[in-house]
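# nightly structure sweep
# worker-07 picked up a monomer target from the shared queue
# config: single-sequence mode, recycle default, output format = structure tokens
# input follows
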Amino acid sequence: MSKAQSLIEQFYQEEQERIAQESTFTPVDVSVSSADMAMINTISKRFNKDKNQLVREALSQAILDMFSALEPVERKMLAKDADELANSIAAEIAEEQGLDALEVTGTNWVAQDKQCIKDERKAEKEQQKQQEMLAQQILAEQQAKAEPEESPEADALTADTQTDESDVEAPSQDAPFAEQANAENEEDAPSNNSIFA
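# output follows
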């Protein structure tokens, strides 16, 4: 089989996948504002996209965002209900088309809920890590401010103070004993005022 033939085979396969996927789509009648419709038309022209496909993709993304914003407990319950309803709708479409079964396309909401939980835990850990880093940074700044600034002038002032203190003569511990010895010597020496002189 040549490359051109395999390319045609690929086109057939892509077409079958698209038809199978589109068969699971449920039409929705939606009215939008003229401003929104103008933007849809402008974007679809700019990127050469089908308007229906553009609206479908935008709506799908908006629903994902809304789902993610739900409270975790409620999100889990709604995810289960939505998946059950999607299977039911797919079974009805398969019956209408005379098929045994039809694979549900699009988002699996229970799996999406699990992904939301992982993302939330990851965001919490990241936030906690940032808070710890900020706390460490603040602590380090406070410690740096608490330590006295050591400068050459402060070192010189400290050295001068120590020199001045060493020059001052400390009182001797022997001073009281010296005074007592002098007093005893004075008592032994004869006084000039003696009556025997």
